[in-house]
């Protein structure tokens, strides 16, 4: 019998296991135009935390006691839709469950880029597009720029590092702990800050004595403040995420915010779905970088549908290197 | 004997009278190409606080024990330069003193817009250009937008209110105390918040139930946070000043910063000198608004060179309505 994770209580602060329940789903016969997919890979992403609150946002909140949603890749096992055949691999948003049923339009065949299917949940999917368009379109980063990226060992951050290097930029990443720092350096970063080892403002000043042109923010808080402290004139900040505040209502404290003025800094929040119309351009450029050996990706994999909440919670305790995934 | 205000100590926090001294200046015979101007009006502006610190910024710090600088308007009383005659009125940056001597290029004849000379220190000068280009170029405000402006009773803010109304926008201002609130309303603002009367977040939510498209920030702090709380999708913030932190090193606390992301807000710091090349366009458009009776300006005037520090300090205690000036 198919099963799905439902949200049974809206988390206060950091979510707990008891906020989620794995529930049997009724068998659903297919209607005309529908497809049944056996999910093989499920995505967990920080933005999902926002959907657990009952707050109007750019994506609607999860409904209580209904299956949650999220990125997933799977194999078509039954089809009553023209043009989709059993055996085909597809990308879709009916994650947090082992079997997905929906209209054919909800499922996208995977582009043929010579990459494994789960890459379309990571570097070649939403996190990769976030990195690519955040860096190149939102922050308008260009060759020669000095780029600072926080959470550089994460799915988005590690792709920012590599795209920036491939495009001729100087890159400073931040990550927590010696092992992740070493990994980010191995991706090509010119310098890596261990944010657990001391003041980020001080470390960034040493890593970028001339300042930074671009900041790609996944974290907020002290990282953002350090970027403000070291922003060069006309620096551009792409504000992608603030994992620091997702579970915590404490205000962000910024000592260096007024430097925005004299340095004419632009800070711009963005969400990747605004750039979905440019997916073909993204796949073409990333496919070329992949073929040239300029992109490496890493996955932190949990096994079994049961592991979904653990994998999700691991995002907030720094439990992943690269893309966090669940293999069903 | 001419006199000038010098900075004798770099202020810690709010400046004190003892940080300044009024000092006799040696009589200076004119060299070829030089002009002598009797200053009639002196400007005090919040940005001057930054120049009192010994910190690299977009304008160099004031030197200790030397005459300070700032906007001034005066009458030429002696000239050894071609094309500048005694009796002519000029705008220049050798303020904080009663007599200015310098090369002809340092003095700009006042444009003929039918306005009193001191208007070129206010609405038709640097504060007016700050309002005009901050609103229209930096925040890209357009007819139909809902605009929130803090310190709306100040020299910059009161001009933002009037330019925005003249261009067909809905305007919400904030000011401190009933008298200033009433005055900002009389300038045409659709709603005015008294920031001394309670929560700015709550008041802005009531004044703009559909949210704001543009925020013109002169204050920072709680005003900025309220603007973040009520930003509509794709809102633009022009960050002009943060008078809240000029005298105070306490960090800015923002509860609503992460809303930048979902609403794709752009925050952009700016300084008016980047737009000086467009002064002719500014004078043309403002001159037309003035002729149409769409611009009113108010001045808070202190008398006598001796009053400069009082006038300057009054900027930080809400002591002015409209442009703060000293008449020499």
UniProtKB/TrEMBL annotation, chains A, B:
User: Is Acyltransferase one of the keywords UniProt gives this record?
Assistant: no
Pfam assignment, any one: ADH_zinc_N
Which GO molecular-function terms appear in the entry?
Answer: oxidoreductase activity, acting on the CH-CH group of donors, NAD or NADP as acceptor
Q: Which UniProt keywords apply?
A: Oxidoreductase
Residues annotated as domain Enoyl reductase (ER): 13-326
Coiled coil ranges: none
By what name is this protein known?
Answer: Enoyl reductase (ER) domain-containing protein
State the organism of origin.
Sphingomonas abaci
């Amino acid at each position: 019998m198919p099963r799905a994770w439902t949200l049974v209580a809206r988390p206060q602060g950091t979510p707990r296991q008891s906020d989620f329940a794995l529930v049997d789903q009724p068998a659903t016969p297919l209607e005309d135009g529908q497809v049944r997919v056996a999910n093989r890979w499920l995505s967990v992403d920080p933005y999902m935390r926002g959907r657990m609150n009952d707050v109007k946002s750019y994506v609607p909140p999860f409904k209580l006691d209904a299956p949650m949603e999220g990125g997933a890749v799977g194999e078509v096992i039954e089809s009553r839709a023209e043009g989709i055949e059993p055996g085909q691999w597809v990308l879709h948003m009916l994650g947090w469950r082992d079997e997905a049923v929906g209209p054919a339009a909800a499922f996208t065949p995977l582009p043929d880029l010579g990459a494994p299917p789960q890459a379309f949940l990571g570097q070649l999917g939403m996190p990769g597009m976030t990195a690519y368009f955040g860096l190149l379109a939102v922050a308008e980063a260009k060759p020669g720029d000095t780029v600072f990226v926080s959470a550089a060992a994460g799915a988005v951050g590690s792709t920012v590092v590599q795209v920036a290097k491939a495009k001729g930029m100087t890159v400073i990443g931040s990550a927590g702990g010696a092992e992740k720092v070493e990994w980010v350096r191995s991706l090509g970063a010119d310098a890596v800050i261990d944010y657990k080892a001391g003041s980020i403002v001080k470390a960034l000043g040493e890593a970028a004595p001339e300042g930074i042109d671009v900041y790609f923010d996944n974290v907020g808080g002290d990282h953002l403040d350090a970027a403000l402290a070291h922003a060069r004139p006309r620096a551009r900040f792409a504000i992608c995420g603030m994992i620091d505040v997702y579970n915590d209502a404490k205000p962000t404290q910024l000592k260096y915010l007024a430097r925005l003025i004299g340095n004419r800094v632009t800070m711009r929040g963005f969400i990747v779905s605004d750039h979905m119309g440019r997916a073909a351009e993204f796949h073409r450029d990333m496919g070329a970088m992949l073929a040239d050996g300029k992109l490496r990706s890493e996955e932190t994999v949990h096994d079994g549908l049961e592991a979904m909440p653990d994998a999700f919670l691991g995002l907030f305790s720094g439990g992943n290197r690269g893309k966090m995934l669940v293999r069903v």
